[in-house]
UniProtKB/TrEMBL annotation:
It comes from Lyticum sinuosum. Its main location: cytoplasm. It is found in: Cytoplasm. Catalyzes the reversible formation of acyl-phosphate (acyl-PO(4)) from acyl-[acyl-carrier-protein] (acyl-ACP). This enzyme utilizes acyl-ACP as fatty acyl donor, but not acyl-CoA. InterPro entries: FA_synthesis, Phospholipid_synth_PlsX-like. Pathway: Lipid metabolism; phospholipid metabolism. This is Phosphate acyltransferase. The lineage of its organism: Bacteria, Pseudomonadati, Pseudomonadota, Alphaproteobacteria, Rickettsiales. Homodimer. Probably interacts with PlsY.
C-alpha cells in the first residue's frame, strides 16, 4: 500500500445496494479532505454499470467484479463455513487481511460480516471476542457505546476488554468531535475579535488553542457500566464482577449509569453486553424517528402551527440533524486484527458516506495499534503485579524459621 488510506468497500451489502454505496462515493469525492484516499470496490455487473455512469473519477478506485453476494437472510454460520465463497463481503475483508486495504466497509448482514471477519482476520492477541462499537447522540454531543450486538452474552472480563477498546475508540472519534465543536466556537470568537479590530495576541492565543485541541493524547474519556441502578451492588453477577474489575483498572471509570443517563451525556464510553446494547440502539433509532414524525404532524396541524413552523424550521432542522441515524452511521468491529466498519443495512448514500468517513478517520489514527498498546500496557502491569506477589511469597517462605 502507498501513503494513501485505502478503503475496501462491499458494494452489494445493504437494502439500497449497489446504488447507495456508489452515490456515497460521489459524496466522498466532493469532499476535498478525502483526496488522500483510494478505494477497492467489490460488486456485480450492475454495480459496475453504475460506477461507469457516475461522475466518480476512475483514478479513485479499482473495481473487482464478483457475482456472489451475501444476503440479509443468509445464516452467518453457513457463510463462515464457506457458503457463497468469494462474495463481495468476503473479498473486502480479505483486502484488509492481505494488506491491500487499511479498512473495509460493508452495509451487509451483520452476523455474516462478524463471522467472516473473525475467520479471516482473527482477534487481537489477548482479546476474547470482538465487539461492535458506535456512537449515540447525547445532549452534550456524542457518546461511544459497546457492545451493540456482537455478543449477546458476555462475562466480566469481556466487559473490561470492551471498556478498554471503547476508550481507545472514543479517544479518536469523540476527540475529533469535541475539537470540531471547540474550534467552531474559537473561530466564531475570532470573527468577533476581527470585527472589533483586536488581532495580535488574541489571534496567537486562538491558534495556540486550536493546536492544543487537535491533540488527542491528553483526552481521557470517562467510562461507565450500563446497569439497572447506579449502585455497585445492583444488577446481575456479571455487572457486579465487571464493576470490580473496572474499578481496579487504569481507565477513567465513573461507575454505573442507568438507561436514561445515556442521553444526558453522563459518560463518554458506555459498556454493556451485545443484547442490551442492540436493544438500546434500536430503541434510540425508533424514538428519533417518532420525534421527527410528531414534529412534522404538529407543524402541519393548522394554519397557525404552519406559520410557527415556518419561522422555527431552520432551528428544528438543525437540532433534528443531531439525532438523525444517518448522521451517526458507522460502527467498528473492535478487537479484530484489522479495521472493519459496519454501515447500517438501511442506510442510504449519506449514511454510507459517513460510515466511510469514520473508517478513514480510524485508519488515519491507527486505532488498532492504540488498542494493542493499551492491552500490552495492562499485560505488563499484571505481570509486574504477579511477579511482585511471587517475590513476596518467596521472601516470606525464606524468612520462615526452621
Amino acid at each position: 500500500m502507498n501513503n494513501k488510506i485505502v478503503v475496501s468497500i462491499d458494494l452489494m451489502g445493504g437494502d439500497y445496494s449497489p446504488l447507495a454505496p456508489v452515490k456515497a462515493l460521489e459524496l466522498i469525492q466532493e469532499t476535498l479532505h478525502y483526496s488522500n484516499c483510494s478505494f477497492i470496490l467489490h460488486g456485480n455487473s450492475d454495480a459496475k454499470k453504475l460506477l461507469e455512469s457516475s461522475n466518480i473519477s476512475k483514478d479513485l478506485y479499482i473495481f473487482n467484479l464478483t457475482n456472489t453476494e451475501v444476503s440479509a437472510d443468509d445464516n452467518p454460520l453457513d457463510i463462515m463455513r464457506g457458503k457463497k465463497n468469494n462474495s463481495s463481503m468476503q473479498l473486502s475483508i480479505e483486502d484488509v487481511s492481505q494488506k491491500r486495504a487499511h479498512v473495509a466497509v460493508s452495509s451487509g448482514n451483520t452476523g455474516a460480516l462478524m463471522a467472516l471477519s473473525i475467520r479471516i482476520l482473527g482477534c487481537i492477541n489477548g482479546i476474547k471476542r470482538p465487539a461492535i462499537v458506535g456512537t449515540i447522540p447525547t445532549k452534550r454531543g456524542k457518546c461511544v457505546m459497546l457492545d451493540l450486538g456482537g455478543n449477546l452474552e458476555c462475562d466480566e472480563k469481556m466487559l473490561l476488554q470492551f471498556a478498554l477498546m471503547g476508550s481507545c475508540f472514543a479517544k479518536i472519534i469523540l476527540s475529533q468531535e469535541n475539537t470540531k465543536n471547540i474550534n467552531d466556537n474559537l473561530l466564531n470568537s475570532h470573527k468577533i475579535l476581527n470585527k472589533n479590530n483586536f488581532h495580535d495576541k488574541n489571534e496567537e492565543h486562538l491558534i495556540y488553542n486550536i493546536k492544543q485541541n487537535n491533540d488527542i493524547s491528553d483526552y481521557n474519556p470517562t467510562v461507565a457500566l450500563l446497569n439497572v441502578g447506579v449502585e455497585s451492588n445492583k444488577g446481575r453477577n456479571t455487572e457486579k464482577k465487571a464493576f470490580d474489575l473496572l474499578q481496579k483498572s487504569n481507565l477513567n471509570f465513573i461507575g454505573c449509569i442507568e438507561g436514561h443517563h445515556i442521553i444526558e451525556g453522563n459518560a463518554d464510553v458506555i459498556v454493556t453486553d451485545g443484547y442490551t446494547g442492540n436493544v438500546v440502539l434500536k430503541s434510540a433509532e425508533g424514538v428519533s424517528n417518532y420525534i421527527r414524525d410528531i414534529l412534522k404532524l404538529s407543524v402541519e396541524k393548522n394554519l397557525i402551527s404552519k406559520i410557527g413552523g415556518f419561522f422555527l424550521s431552520s432551528s428544528i432542522k438543525q437540532n433534528m440533524e443531531k439525532i438523525r441515524p444517518d448522521k451517526n452511521n458507522g460502527a467498528m468491529f473492535v478487537g479484530l486484527n484489522g479495521i472493519i466498519v459496519k454501515s447500517h443495512g438501511g442506510s442510504k448514500s449519506e449514511g454510507i458516506a459517513n460510515a466511510i468517513k469514520t473508517a478513514i478517520m480510524l485508519a488515519e489514527n491507527h486505532v488498532n495499534e492504540r488498542i494493542i498498546n493499551e492491552i500490552n500496557c495492562i499485560d505488563f502491569i499484571d505481570k509486574i503485579k504477579n511477579s511482585s506477589v511471587k517475590l513476596l511469597n518467596m521472601l516470606r517462605f525464606n524468612d520462615t524459621p526452621n
